[in-house]
Request: fold
Amino acid sequence: MPESNPVSVVTGGAGFLGSHLCDLLLSKGHRVVCLDNLLTGNLMNIEHLEGRDDFQFIKHNVTEYIDVPGPVDFIFHFASPASPIDYLELPIQTLKVGALGTHKTLGLARAKGARFLLASTSEVYGDPLVHPQPESYWGNVNPIGPRGVYDEAKRFAEAMTMAYHRFHGVDTRIVRIFNTYGPRMRPRDGRVVPAFITQVLKGEPLTVFGTGRQTRSFCYVSDLIAGIYALAMSDCHDPVNIGNPSEMTVLDFAKKILDLCGGSSQIVFKPLPEDDPKVRQPDIRKARAVLGWQPVMDLDAGLARTIDYFRALLTRGLI
Ligand code: UDP
Reply:
């Protein structure tokens, strides 16, 4: 790492995770170049950074050639649609940014001699047959199902990243991100956290898919971003899971949101989407051992902040 003011490029920097990563990097003294084509990103997520001389936003689709003048020390590739509704509505863009976008950003890393970190996903494990999921598990993915466009693009992205590492000697990292929540999630991205919170705040029924017995494990965004920063600064080239292992059923999660929001919504059951994973929980022993990282945010406290965020959007007429 350079003596002072390293330069970081964040693709998808106007998205949910990307914008929080920009904030953390700036707080660590990095100069940040944020690339986003605003397909699912939103300028509202970075409006508080406008006018800073250590922050630059460039509207760009990273599946096309990327031109960033001057030295670059780190590249964080976070651009991608990232919710099951997005995969249905934007299947080709999802495949392209995971495949072509990863190729272009790795090319930039190679040209600049920059360290490269890929935002991969728990979806590489598909509907897992091993539980919880350690990094050594190869997964159970349906390549031609509705989620295949995301899962296979991220699996390709991991393969491409390792090929650039082994063949071109690029200094790479891979984080496998598990379900994460917090302020700046898109209210209508269909994911369970914004869906349930906005439903209760608007007095609508909570839509639980299937029986609600499927499980997920939710990590607060500041914990996740701290883990990713620790990985970026580590020497670890192999994939590392980052997430919160405290697991619960979707039905229990719906009841918790009702309880925390204080609403009177009913719970209604809707069909389970195709290939919806039945269980998910990160095995984070590697992150603990290699990075000395573990999540610290309590679920109720993290959800309270997230509910406040969506309440504010509702007050401003943005939901
Ligand atoms: N889910 C639900 N109701 C909703 C949205 C999602 O019951 O309105 C369920 C979904 O079927 C899945 C879990 O919540 O089992 C998490 O879904 P999400 O879309 O947040 O992401 P995933 O973890 O499936 O990628």
About this structure: Residues 100 and 284 are 30 Å apart (CA to CA). The two ends are 42 Å apart (CA to CA). The chain has a mean pLDDT of 97. The chain has nine helices and 13 strands.
